[in-house]
């Protein structure tokens, strides 16, 4: 892996994947694992008081244990749905982050590619040619100035 563009793409994609994974883990802990406490009759009655259809269901089913068992099954189903959703969303997230990262890497490396293209046009027969100054990062601007200064010295050495 010698290409700087590929290295930047892998780095940015990895960073995005890390952040998304961390967010998913925190969300999983906050929503799914934090609901591990067993359901109490008070919780059920408080919940049912806000939802008449559930209150009717609870009144029909006098056996509290069966209602709690149903609640536990619902929580387990939520865990499964969450895990399935997470595994279905991760591949597209990785793909989109890789494509976006490649675009960002291409954008960042465009000035370096311009400098490289200009250098390739130069040869021993046209020592007077210089790289036009590029508005970019300080490093790229410094590289262009240093290369042009080197070309000035080379041209002077060949002329003298």
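Q: What amino acid sequence fits the structure above?
A:
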């Amino acid at each position: 892996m010698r290409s700087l563009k590929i290295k930047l793409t892998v780095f940015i994609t990895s960073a995005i994947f890390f952040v998304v994974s961390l967010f998913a883990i925190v969300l999983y802990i906050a929503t799914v694992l934090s609901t591990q406490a067993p359901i109490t009759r008070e919780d059920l009655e408080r919940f049912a008081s806000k939802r008449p259809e559930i209150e009717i269901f609870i009144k029909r089913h006098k056996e509290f244990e069966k209602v709690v068992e149903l609640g536990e099954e619902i929580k387990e189903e939520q865990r499964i749905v969450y895990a399935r959703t997470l595994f279905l969303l991760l591949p597209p997230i990785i793909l989109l982050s890789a494509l976006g990262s490649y675009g960002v890497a291409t954008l960042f490396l465009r000035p370096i590619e311009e400098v490289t293209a200009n250098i390739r046009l130069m040869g021993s027969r046209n020592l007077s040619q210089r790289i036009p100054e590029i508005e970019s990062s300080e490093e790229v601007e410094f590289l262009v100035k240093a290369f042009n200064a080197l070309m000035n010295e080379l041209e002077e050495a060949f002329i003298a």
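Q: And what stands out in the fold?
A: The helical segments are 4-31, 41-49, 52-60, 64-121, 138-159.
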